[in-house]
Design goal:
Elements: E1 2-4, H1 27-47, E2 51-53, H2 60-71, E3 78-80, H3 84-96, E4 103-106, H4 111-114, E5 117-119, E6 131-138, H5 141-144, H6 146-154, H7 159-170, H8 175-185, H9 187-194, E7 204-209, H10 213-228, E8 232-237, H11 240-248, E9 254-260, H12 265-271, E10 275-286, E11 288-293
C-alpha cells in the first residue's frame, strides 16, 4: 500500500581561426574580437536575469546554494524556488533553444544521462564534497523487525544503479515496473542483501521517502525486495523536513535517502540520537552543485561574478 502526504546569446567561446595567406591578422581586429567575446560572456547574467533555478525550498541543496551566493559575493543573483519538475522543464527548454541557464544539480540523477551537463567548479566548497546516501532506522526497529533490519543494514548499491531506474521512470515506465526491471537484471546484488534472512508473514513495514526520483527509485526497489520476503510494505511520501520528523518520532520504520554529511545535516541534527544510522548505501555518489549545459563557456561559480 502506498500513502501520500502533502507534497508540498549563448557564448560559445570565441575561437579565432587565422588563415595566413601571405599576411597575418590585424592586432586591432583581434582586440575587437576579444572584447566582443568578453561582452558575450558578461551577458550571461543579464540573459538569465541573474536567476539560478532551484527546487523545493525545504531541500538541503537550496541551503547550500544560498551559501554559495554569499561565498562568491553574488548578492545580485536570485535563487528561484520551484520544484524538481519545474527545474527540469526550465533546463530542457533552455537546452532546446541553446540558451544559458544555471540550475541546482545533484547526482544521482537521470538528467546527466539525457543531457550534456557539467558542474561548475566550487573552490569555496559551498556545496561540500560528494556525499554519501545513508539508510536510517527508527529506534527499536531492530527488535521489532530483525529481518528487515538485517536487509537494510546490508543494503548497498551504486549511483549508476539508481540512475538506471530513474532514467526508465523518466521515460514513462511505471515505478514498480522500473524497479522490478532493475531487480531482474541485478539478482546477484539483491541476493547479497537478503542472503541468510528468514521470510516473515505479512508484517507491516513503513518506509518514508521524498518526492524526488532518487527517493522513489530506492523506495520502490526496497518495497519489492521486502515484499518478496513476506512484508506488507507501506510507502509514505513527504518533503525532506517531514521525513526526519516522521522517523524521529517513530511514525515510520526506515528511510533510504539521507544525504550526509551536508545536504540533510540540518534535518539530521534534529533527530540525531533518536534514530539509528545504518551507514551509507551509496558511497561518495551524491555530488551537489550548480549545473550548466556543456555549451556554456563558464567553468566555475566564480565566473558568475560581475567584473
Amino acid at each position: 500500500m502506498i500513502k501520500h502526504w502533502k507534497r508540498l546569446g549563448i557564448a560559445t567561446g570565441l575561437s579565432l581561426t587565422l588563415v595566413a595567406a601571405g599576411c597575418g591578422a590585424d592586432n586591432e581586429d583581434m582586440t575587437q574580437a576579444d572584447e566582443s567575446g568578453d561582452a558575450e560572456e558578461e551577458n550571461y547574467a543579464e540573459e538569465m536575469d541573474y536567476t539560478i533555478v532551484g527546487i523545493d525550498p525545504g531541500a538541503g541543496i537550496m541551503e547550500r546554494a544560498d551559501q554559495a551566493l554569499e561565498d562568491y559575493d553574488l548578492a545580485e543573483w536570485n535563487l528561484q524556488t520551484s520544484s524538481e519538475e519545474a527545474m527540469i522543464a526550465a533546463l530542457e527548454d533552455a537546452i532546446d533553444n541553446e540558451e544559458p541557464i544555471v540550475v541546482t544539480g545533484w547526482g544521482p540523477h537521470w538528467k546527466f544521462v539525457d543531457h550534456d551537463l557539467k558542474y561548475l567548479d566550487d573552490p569555496e566548497l559551498s556545496f561540500g564534497e560528494a556525499q554519501d546516501i545513508h539508510t536510517l532506522a527508527r529506534e527499536e526497529m531492530q527488535e521489532d523487525f530483525p529481518e528487515a533490519y538485517e536487509i537494510l543494514e546490508t543494503f548497498e548499491w551504486t549511483a549508476e544503479d539508481l540512475e538506471e531506474i530513474m532514467y526508465e521512470m523518466n521515460q514513462g515506465v511505471d515505478e514498480i515496473e522500473a524497479a522490478q526491471n532493475w531487480i531482474d537484471e541485478n539478482e546477484d546484488v539483491v541476493a547479497s542483501w537478503t542472503e541468510g534472512v528468514d521470510e516473515v508473514d505479512g508484517e507491516i513495514f513503513e518506509i518514508v521517502h521524498g518526492p524526488w526520483g532518487t527517493d522513489l527509485a530506492a523506495a520502490y526497489v526496497m518495497l519489492l525486495v521486502l515484499e518478496d520476503m513476506g512484508y506488507d510494505v507501506e510507502l509514505t511520501n513527504v518533503e525532506s523536513i517531514h521525513m526526519y520528523t516522521a522517523i524521529g518520532n517513530g511514525d515510520v520504520d526506515a528511510m533510504l535517502t539521507s544525504w550526509l554529511p551536508d545536504s540533510h545535516a540540518t534535518f539530521y541534527e534534529q533527530v540525531e540520537g533518536e534514530v539509528e544510522d545504518l551507514g551509507p548505501n551509496i558511497e561518495e555518489g551524491a555530488p551537489l552543485g550548480l549545473v550548466v549545459p556543456e555549451y556554456m563557456d563558464i567553468d566555475s561559480i566564480e565566473d558568475l561574478q560581475e567584473e
